[in-house]
Amino acid sequence: ILWSKSYDASFKLDLINTFIKNILLGEKSAKQHYNFEDSTIKWQMQPDLKLIFAVVYKEMLQLSNIEDLLDQVRFEFVKKVHPTLLKANDIYLEVPSNFDQHFQYAL
User: Can you tell me the distance from the alpha carbon of 23 to that of 27, in angstroms, rounded to the nearest whole number?
Assistant: First the structure.
């Protein structure tokens, strides 16, 4: 995880670990959403950078603009933050320290 933002203090990384194990490593990533307990994960891939952008939200919210948010966050990250990250052999050596401001812009 290069960057994360949570508005829910009860959010647990177990959901992300389950998503990685069951969907990404299980090669079921053709789907673009994953429901787990009371949460939904929607994601988009950026294959050329080997990155996945994901949003986790409570399933009962039924948010309609998640895809737009993912598009905007991915754009902000790829164009403005990714070029500044230090990387060696496809491994990111640092996490972005300035993405919070880009995320707020995307909202």
Answer: 6
Token couple for 52:
């996945």
Distance between CA 9 and CA 6 in Å, rounded? 7
User: pLDDT, tens digit, for every residue of 33-78?
Assistant: 788 888 888 888 888 888 888 888 876 566 678 888 888 889 888 8
Q: What token pair was written down for 70?
A: 């993912």
> What b/e string do you get for 63-92 counting C-beta neighbours within 10 Å, with b at 16 or more?
eeebeebbebbbebbeeebbeeeeeeeeee
What distance in Å separates the CA atoms of residue 81 and residue 105, rounded to the nearest whole number? Answer: 13
How many percent of the chain have pLDDT more than 90? 0
